[in-house]
Specification:
Layout lengths: L3 E5 L14 H5 L32 E8 L2 E8 L2 E5 L7 E4 L3 E6 L11 H6 L3 H10 E2 L25 E5 L19 E3 L11 H8 L9 H5 L6
Antiparallel strand pairs: 1-4, 2-3, 3-4, 5-9, 6-7, 6-8
């Protein structure tokens, strides 16, 4: 079943005039002055990109991504982003209830199954050191050549390949000691298409928002600032 992801973009565009509007931005305002919309302004009017009530027109942009003949469409209308995937487009849950899954580095020492509870408690310094040195929730390579231990929970050597640690665990060095309770889930989906050649203005516009990548109160409750 296809899905729609809607999120409010935080920053409202200021009014543009024909002098300052670039060709790219003009393409995002094709609705401004369209026939039979009672716009009533000439193109050289400094208020051309406003309504008759002097409310700023907002951009409208669309684009798509695709690989192997499979497409995902992204549009932005009235400061709202809408993402529509195809029938098999999946979503994955990253975390829930304030826990972070950490993965053991392949071929490295890990936590034995019988030590799992003590490792989760965070009171054993030796186990904490193993978690700090050989377990991580980050992939610095940013590619598929990672060294994380996926697959079965327990390795053939009897080590735990992953553990779910609370954000207050000593492994994270107190980084999240004052973090609000994480009671909202966080999902993500993969959007393929190298360099987004068919996204055009819509992707550039989304990235240009002044509050892009700034996590707000709801985002913190979903743990989007945990890294």
């Amino acid at each position: 079943m296809a899905f729609i992801l809607v999120t409010t973009l935080m920053q409202v565009m200021v009014s543009l005039t024909p002098v300052t509007a670039s060709t790219a931005m003009t393409e995002m305002f094709q609705h401004s002055g369209a026939c039979n919309t009672q716009h009533g302004k000439e193109e050289d009017d400094p208020d051309y990109y406003t309504t008759n009530s002097n409310i700023t027109h907002l951009p409208s942009a669309s684009g798509f991504m695709g690989t192997h003949g499979t497409y995902r469409h992204l549009t932005v209308h009235e400061q709202t982003a809408v993402l529509i995937g195809e029938g098999k487009h999946g979503m994955w849950r990253i975390q829930g209830a304030g826990f972070i899954r950490v993965y053991r580095t392949q071929e490295e020492e890990g936590i034995k199954q019988e030590d799992k509870d003590n490792a989760l408690d965070g009171d054993d310094e030796e186990l904490n050191n193993i978690l700090v040195k050989h377990y991580t929730h980050q992939d610095g390579s940013e590619n598929r050549d990672h060294k994380h231990s996926f697959g079965e929970e327990i390795s053939k050597d009897g080590f735990l390949n992953w553990l779910d640690l609370t954000i207050y665990h000593p492994k994270f060095g107190g980084k999240y000691k004052d973090h609000p309770v994480m009671d909202l889930p966080w999902y993500y989906c993969g959007l393929s298409g190298a360099d987004y050649p068919h996204m055009g203005n819509v992707w550039k516009y989304v990235k240009a928002q002044k509050n892009a990548n700034r996590v707000g109160p709801l985002g913190k409750r979903a743990g989007m600032d945990v890294n």
